[in-house]
Amino acid sequence: MSKTKYIFVTGGVSSSLGKGIISASLAKLLQARGYSTTIQKLDPYINVDPGTLNPYEHGECYVTRDGAETDLDLGHYERFSNIPTSQANNVTTGRIYQTVINKERRGDYLGETVQVIPHITDEIKRSIKILGSTGDYDFVITEIGGTVGDIESLPYVETVRQMRWEMGRNCLVVHLTLIPYLSAAGELKTKPTQHSVKTLQEQGVQPDIIVCRTERHLNENIRKKIALFCNVSPTSVIESIDAETIYDVPVLMRQEGLDVEVLNKTKMPTDSIPDLSDWEKFLFKLKHSKSEVNIGLVGKYTELKDAYKSINESFIHASAANQCKVNLKLINSEDLNDRNADKKLNGLNGILVAPGFGYRGIDGKIIAIKYARENKVPFLGICLGMQCAVVEFARNVLGYKDAHSTEMYSKTKHPVIDLMEHQKKVSEKGGTMRLGSYPCRIKKGTKVYKIYNITDISERHRHRYEFNNKYRENYEKAGMILSGINPKDDLVEIIELKDHPWFIGVQFHPEYQSTVAKPHPLFVEFVKAARKHKKS
Ligand code: GLN
User: Fold this and answer.
1) In this structure, what is the dihedral angle of CA atoms 173, 178, 179, 183, given to the nearest 10 degrees?
2) CA angle, 38 then 242 then 146, to 5°
3) 407: three-class secondary structure by DSSP
4) What pLDDT sits at residue 52?
């Protein structure tokens, strides 16, 4: 195998231009040519990981198989490439400093003054090269969070400069920038891009490829102008036009030849043809729906789409699989009450109650679940959503009026959801939940068995509380089926209702494992059930 090539993706002019999508699209294209790739995100903030961040701060926290709490861009990487990521794929400044400081305390640098250069930059380099050193990848694509010029990004850009110097053509920089359109002038403007490239150059880095995010097509003159001012060849100016869906971007990047530029510059053969036929089939089905359904997503972060990113994307995958458009309606659980539930939930063909933490919005979630249960609306409860379904059943079917999760009400007489045994001793917040993949055994003859069609599955988790096993019998007698169990720790992972067409709660997060190549069966079947509900 050839030596691993390192590709850095930096951003200029503005945040939110879609570095994650460009990185994932490039990985997809290289993969479609038969190259093995992995993508990494370096985040310049001081948190050791985003696990302690409020979703309003940074969107959803994505969880990998090995239990890392990571940036949501890793979700895009997995959804596009269908290759699992791990802790090594997301590194923050906090983690870099923590490692360096631990080494200093251990005496690893005895006698030396520990400094940003070389100690911090060496540690950043180590975190990048660790992916290449496995020998598994032809390309390691490293996305640098933030925008060039940020104080926080400096050590990362400096690391890129050093790696370029050391590795020559085995290292490449793709700079994503914005070309704004000024309607008053009727023109696309290149000046902000010129400035952001200058900023990179001042820090010693010459980008090799400029990807231009734009609302309007770039003409030849604009491309030449960018090339001239930014020291790149015109073929290295790549247009990234606003797309109907993020899933169009790999196809658009193929048209623009981003992969060819990367391969030429890293001296890799370009004779293979990128095979995107499955991807194009997915896009066709996504854009040619034969039916549509309304699904309510009940949660408390309804002003921010990114808070439930993976759930949104899982519905897109399931929508294509069913050729059925999903109109996802965000419903703020804090606004739901007994008086308005009928009005707010009427017309939905499916209700999903979202994961979450803390008391806020809990009552509305329980009301939405009662509505779904009584009106036989397809229901999917994820993590806290499943726990709320257990509470709702206790209160309204078993008659335990004050039943609750001890997360919300520690003095309840009926703690049907309780802290897991090993969590009782935990006091630190960061990285201490039950995290990552755990096995689950599905009971034959259940609805979920029909959905998965296998007994042994593995799904990703992120929680501290759990179904209280003391109540198992009471639930089972009253018609709740505990259809999935963790075989080692005997924890309830899946619940479903006997007398309901489609009512399923899962303690894990299926949304983290849904990809374009492998839409998650729970989402696919949930949309199917919603379509059936609509017909009836
Ligand atoms: N707050 C709940 C717990 O910690 C659920 C977590 C979640 O929904 N991810 O168990």
Assistant:
1) 180
2) 50
3) coil
4) 84
- DSSP code string of 187-201: EE--HHHHHHHHHHH
pLDDT of residue 250 exceeding 60: yes
User: How far apart are the C-alpha atoms of 8 and 101, rounded to whole Å?
Assistant: 26
> Tokens representing 220?
């030849």
CA–CA dist 355, 307 (Å, integer) = 10
What tokens does 485 get? Answer: 């169990």
Q: Give the number of other Cβ atoms within 10 Å of residue 147's Cβ.
A: 22
Distance CA 76, CA 279 (A): 15
Rounded Cα distance between 221 and 50, Å, is 42
Using a cut of 0.85, tell me whether the model's pTM lies above it: yes
Q: Please determine, for residue 517, whether its predicted confidence score (pLDDT) is greater than 50.
A: yes
Would the pLDDT of 1 be above 50? Answer: no
**Digit-coded pLDDT (tens) for 76-95:** 999 999 999 999 999 999 99
Confidence of residue 2 (pLDDT cuts 50, 70, 90): low
Alpha carbon of 464 to ligand 1 centroid (Å): 6
**pLDDT by residue (tens digit) across 164-179?**
999 999 999 999 999 9
Name residues contacting ligand 1 (CB within 6 A). 355-357, 383-384, 407, 462-465
The predicted model gives 367-394 an average pLDDT of 98
230 catalytic per annotation: no
Which of 309, 391, 462 gets mutated to test ligand 1 (max ligand atoms within 8 A of its CB)? 462
Instruction: Tell which residue, 527, 467, 459, has the closest CA to residue 491.
Output: 467
Instruction: Tell me how far the alpha carbon of residue 166 is from its chain's centroid.
Output: 33
pLDDT tens digits along 460-474: 999 999 999 999 999
Mention every residue, 6+ apart, whose C-beta is less than 8 A from residue 168: none
The active-site residue, picked from 175, 414, 509, 520, is: 509
Distance 358 CA to ligand 1 centre (A): 8
